[in-house]
Write a structure and sequence with these properties.
The strands form three sheets. This protein has a four-stranded parallel beta sheet, covered by helices on one side. It has a three-stranded parallel beta sheet with strand order 3-5-8, with no helix packed on it. The protein is an alpha/beta fold. The longest helix has 16 residues. It is globular, with a radius of gyration of 16 Å.
Length: 153
């Protein structure tokens, strides 16, 4: 009984530690999926960012985990407040610490648009609550465009 209560308490505390959403992206994913596990990962990075933003709050930020590979969106991606975007996954990890060197995640701009375009306003800026980590931005008209935006990396 004591062991059961401790397990239950640990589960509740773990859920409280990360109450926002975590969404997964993989080159083998599908946007018909829910993005809530590696097995049901999205294919499109912006789809995952938007899903994460829909459940993120200041108190419960969300995460997007992107597996290794090259991702083309067809237009500029846009970061969102309270959403951390992490690349560098093999596609089976359960924690950030499990990422390994060599799992390069590339956001590819097809030489025709900003790979990431954070075009916000003074009254509604992108804050440092938006994070980009272990992602390579490549072959865009420009890499990352920030207007009234101060994401962290």
């Amino acid at each position: 009984m004591k062991k059961h209560i401790l397990s239950l308490l640990f589960g509740v505390l773990s859920a409280c530690a990360f109450a926002g959403g975590r969404f997964y992206v993989s080159t083998t994913g599908s946007d018909a999926n829910d993005g809530k596990s590696w097995a049901t990962a999205f294919a499109d990075v912006q789809t995952a960012i938007n899903a994460a933003a829909s459940v993120a709050t200041d108190e419960s930020p969300s995460e997007v985990w992107i597996a290794k590979g090259t991702y083309q969106h067809g237009s500029s991606l846009s970061m969102k407040n309270n959403v951390a975007i992490y690349g560098g996954f093999a596609g089976s990890e359960n924690s950030l610490e499990e990422r390994a060197i060599g799992n390069e995640t590339i956001l590819y701009g097809q030489n025709s648009y900003n790979v990431i375009r954070n075009d916000y306003t003074m009254s509604n800026p992108l804050t440092s609550s938006a994070k980009l980590d272990a992602v390579t931005v490549s072959n865009g008209e420009s890499g990352i465009y920030n207007n009234y935006s101060s994401p962290t990396d």
